[in-house]
Write a structure and sequence with these properties.
By secondary structure, the chain is mostly helical. The protein is built from five helices and three strands.
Length: 180
């Protein structure tokens, strides 16, 4: 019965591919793999300052083999994504170079840059601190023109903002000891 069902079931035309098509498919798959590695290297090298591009997935009903045209479209799409990712990394590098030049100016002549605040993230550094040009000795330094660059940690305290007071509940074993 099972052999009869298999014989009478739908047939799939999945013969061996032509030799020239096999070579083209292998070449396209190798190009796609190389482009995926390149894209991963570019994005991972610049993370978290350059976010990966989010691409909506195909609405395929299940697993399938891509024909040559679809493989070429996947390759071309990946090449475009690699190009856009490299452009984003280059723009980020220019931004960081400009921020480093600004930091050098801040340190050289703080009085020219009164009140300027430069986050360390703009320099490509980890953390949440910032370089800030401030008057030395507060109001007196402001009036006298005494300015300096201060690096703040910028990170919020580990304890966080104090919430509403919650009454402490003693464990049942401690309740009897307090009453005595």
């Amino acid at each position: 019965m099972i052999a009869g069902q298999l014989r009478d079931g739908p047939r799939v035309a999945a013969g061996p591919a032509a030799p020239d098509e096999r070579g083209a498919r292998a070449s396209l798959r190798a190009q796609i793999a190389r482009l995926e590695r390149e894209l991963a290297d570019v994005v991972a090298g610049a993370f978290p300052h350059v976010a990966p591009e989010v691409v909506p997935g195909a609405a395929a009903a299940g697993p399938r083999l891509l024909d040559l045209g679809e493989l070429e479209r996947v390759r071309d799409d990946l090449a475009g994504r690699v190009h856009r990712a490299r452009g984003a990394v280059a723009r980020r590098a220019e931004h960081e170079a400009a921020a480093r030049a600004l930091l050098e100016d801040l340190l050289a002549e703080p009085a020219r840059h009164r009140g300027v605040r430069l986050p360390v993230a703009d320099l490509g550094l980890p953390g949440c601190g910032a370089y800030h040009v401030r008057p030395r000795l507060g109001l007196i330094g402001m009036l006298m023109g005494w300015w300096h660059v201060k690096l703040s940690s910028g990170c919020p305290s580990a304890t966080g903002i104090a919430g509403p007071a919650v009454p402490r509940r003693d464990p049942p074993a401690m309740r009897g000891l307090r009453a005595a």
